[in-house]
Amino acid sequence: MAKLEAGAVAGTHTWISESSAPHGSEPRFEDGWHAGVRDVASHLLRIADTTATTGRGLAASNTMLVAHLQQPASPDSREPAAEEPEAPPVTLDARDVLAAAERFSWAVATPGLRNFPDGSDFLDVALSAVRPEERAGYVERLEAFAEQHRKRLEEMLRTHGPGSRPASHGRYALVGQPETLVILERMETMPFLLRRRWEEELEGVFLDDLEFVWGPRIRLSR
What we know:
Blueprint: H1 2-17, H2 27-54, H3 58-69, H4 94-101, H5 120-128, H6 138-148, H7 150-160, H8 179-189, H9 191-201, H10 204-214
Helix pairs in contact: 1-2, 2-3, 4-6, 5-8, 5-9, 8-9
């Protein structure tokens, strides 16, 4: 049931994201329209991921939606409120994340066997699906994920990694890449956001193959 609800919310996200302001609208109205669309679409995507991964279904969706709707409206631009200093956003260093992923030998092929010696494009897209509130302590989250799924990662590398029979046909190219550990963690945590960011930047077949082998709770490949 939670999967059906998550899919419905994701479909609504797509519909809203593709909407446009009424024809002939003034530029200021269009700017406000698009800003509102981005805000609503972002929250819908978050609701879809939360619903899909927590398994709480409608209750999780309703709680997040109500919380968003109850937020106070933005003050009128003609009466600017005093700005409060914001805490600097937490940044993720891709090098630190990659170094952490490379420590898990049961999930990563040896450098000489990897299909992509430089997998930075894959890593960048995967990290773009880490929301700001998740960045603090993300390396520790990744390490816990790898330890939790050690046997599963070992089996995936053995059966579909470099040198395996399935890989000899030119598929499953991401299995054994250190960047893949981040992709898998995001696939389990933020599947809709990961899929959206991936389709904007990379070929879907790489993610589809990885999803087929890993078998996540929410399968989004067509």
